[in-house]
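Database export, one record per block. Field names are fixed; values are copied verbatim from the stored entry.
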Amino acid sequence: VQLQASGGGLVQPGGSLRLSCVVSGNIFRIDDMAWHRQVPGKQRELVAVITSGGTSNYTDSVKGRFTVSRDNAKNTMYLQMNSLKPEDTAVYSCNADVFVTTWNGKLAQYDYWGRGTQVTVSS
């Protein structure tokens, strides 16, 4: 199973970006998915979480500006980021709780992570 995050870039303050996280491989089911961000020298921060049913939660600093969504048919999660601020600058990465079918036909659950995508908000 692999996760691929994309959509980062350089944007001016007040601008928007849309990140995508695609899950591929031997997937039986995907439960919770989440976006995180990290600035060098600081701890990784949980930005948004979305359940398989579409229930979402956000860290306070992005509420009202960021929207997380997912397309279960495409095994893809999105993060629409509006009204971006310089303090949103970070490497954004995604993770997913994935059920896979093992060699003996049983299900196993793993937490997979993808490489990050850089978001830079600067004038």
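Remark 1: The radius of gyration is 15 Å.
Remark 2: The mean pLDDT is 96.
End of record.
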